[in-house]
Amino acid sequence: MTTQTLKSGAGGRLLDALVLVGLTVLVWQALYEYVGDSALTSPLMTLDYAGSLVRSASFWSHAQATLIAFACSLAISIALGVGLGLLLGLQRFAGDVAEPIFVALYTIPKVTLYPLILLIFGLGLSAKVAFGVIHGVVPIILFTLNAVKNINPVLLRASRVMRLSRWQTIATVLAPAVMPELITGVRVGFSLTMLGVLIGEMFASQRGLGFLIINGISLHNVRMTTAVILIVVAFAIAANSLLLAFDRRMHHAASS
User: Fold this and answer.
1) What is the Cα Rg of the chain in Å?
2) Distance between alpha carbon 128 and the CA centroid of its chain, in Å?
3) What's the rounded Cα separation, in Å, for the pair 197 and 209?
4) pLDDT of 110-148, one tens digit each?
5) I need a surface site. Which of 35, 42, 190, 196 has the fewest CB within 10 A?
6) Structural domain range at position 152
7) Do 157 and 74 fall into the same domain?
8) Is the domain of 3 the same as that of 79?
């Protein structure tokens, strides 16, 4: 692939992103003109209020609470997801039994589990972390499990011929082979974990960005609600764009 091709590809993606942003702003402005200030603020007003919001100390106090809960949830989701995915993938029968169970759990509306989570963990950080984990861990398990199940059998036979231990096989054979799919699973789990933490803050906390959103809705503070949602969406898009670029690079390296 030539440098000129890379530049044209990057330029095309940038143009697509600018067009998408422009269309989003136009639709947003049209909705604002239709529903008025009682339900939505204009893009310019929202940006202005979001700018003043991020300059306040109270906002960063809430943002810190969200980031702490999100970091804990994501770390637990990745550790549990990768560990269980590798374990079940290496045990073929256990993996075949567990996979449809996890798929069924993934399709269950998580809102039905919130009363149980609140009874177990109460209000606070632990409940938010639990909300995040139940959203993010299952896709990481499924991606890792399927990556191990679909690994080239020649690689596993070669590890047995070389008399590698299980841990040596995981470190030198399985980990490099499953890494592209694992990154994809982490990318999906990242978004769902963030969603779970924010919803957990709406139900089970008095701190965090999710609490600001639900508090703004309760007080009919449309400016704050819209501005916080915009900040969360901007962060999610930026983080997912970085993860997607890394995901594509890993898949390209694996296929080359």
Assistant:
1) 22
2) 15
3) 9
4) 777 888 888 888 777 888 899 899 999 999 999 988 888
5) 35
6) 41-255
7) yes
8) no
